Amino acid sequence: MVRILIVEDQRIMQKYFESIIMREPEFRHVQTVSDACEAVKICSYSAIDLVLMDVQTFHNHDGLSAGKIIREKYPYTKVLVVTSLIDPRVLERAKSGCADSLWYKDHGEEEIRSVIYRTLNGEHVFPDVAPEVFPLPRECPTNTTTAIWQATGCHIPRSQGKWTALLQG
Question: Distance (Å, rounded) from C-alpha 125 to C-alpha 106?
Answer without folding.
Answer: 16
